[in-house]
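hey so u asked for the seq, here:
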Amino acid sequence: SAGAAKDTIVEEYQELSKHEEDDLQRILASCDWAIGNAEAFTERLAEELSGLDGANIHAIMGSEHQVQDLIKLLDQALWELNNTEMKLQDYDMLLETVKESMEVMEEKDRCMQVEDTNRDKLAKEIETLISQLEMSAEETQLLDHGNLSGRQSLQQCIAAAQRLQHVQSVELSRGLSIMSAVTECREHADMLSRSFGQRVHGHLTFVFAKMASEALDNTGLRHSSEAILRPHSQIHHELLPYAPLLTWLRTANETHYVDLCKSYVQHMKRVYEVEVKEFMESAKQNLSKERRQAVPGAGLKPMTTAGSVSSIHSGSSASNLSSSELSRDKSRISMTSLEDERSRFDHVFNTVLSQLDPVCSREQDFLLKFFPFSTHEPSSSGGLQQDSPDGINLRRSTKGSKPEVGLKASAFTRKKMLTDLLSVVEPEVQQLVQFGDKIDG
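ran it, structure tokens below
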């Protein structure tokens, strides 16, 4: 198109330089006729151009050796250029090799760093694993042969048992759990747990039997004239240091733990049966003794009354009492005697309950501390209760009502233990009430 051609012409046009413009003006000035005779001017320019070309050719031919030297220099430059290019290629290859070597070294360095990190982590993990699973020789010796009777050695055995429980309860990942060393440590810990559990079971069973036997031997109620029932504070004090072992045994071997619960109930139940029965028998004897002292010659009283009535009917002049007055006096004496007997019974009965209260309370408090059961407390129902600080409720009643001993334990199993231990209390209290009713007539 016309626009495109115009753009091409504009692009091909080159402005004359200052030097070219001066030469053109000089030529035009030397040829005044050039403007009027363009053909002659053109021919002259062609002649001058031809002369210049010839001069250039002669100049070139005259400098042929210089051209040859120039060509040689160009050839040498080309050779040097090729040589330099080859060296650059060699350098590139060397640099490529160095680059690969550096990459390999960097990869090796990274792998070494990862290896060092893994080694440190592995060492720490092994140290942690050893600290968690390894039992020292001293701890093993304590669990196998430690003295469970001495206070200091008992505390050491308890610490070793707690350490053993920690070893058995450590949670490990599956990868660590299947390691042969870990398996051996676990098996060793299980073996120690079984053997120590048997030792604790046997020792405490012996201690329960020994303390129960000593308590029965030291029972002084058979020869005591007063109704006294004391808590087993000494037995509880000697047994409480073993409480952490009971806590450990419940987790380690529940069968042994249940056997010890039954063993304690079995041995101490016999002690309570003997002591409570003798205590109640002493209360009955005191009640009978007070009645005899309060009514001396009670067996002769009806005869005396009958004699007085007989002499009145025989017309004795010494007596002015009428038949109705004698009847009122007899009724008044009978009511006074009945009130006195009931008052004495209430006093003895309240004394009995006041001594049963601390015994039951101390026993429940001991069970709460010694045997580790759950802490959910069942609710008690109905009736007014007198609560002791440890949760024993003694429902006191006056003569003629049925007393109850409510045992509010913090778990069913503990409640059952306490109920079994003190099972003798309720029937003995009922017998005491029946004995009072019998005396009352």
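The longest strand covers residues 392-395. The two ends are 151 Å apart (CA to CA).
lmk if thats what u needed
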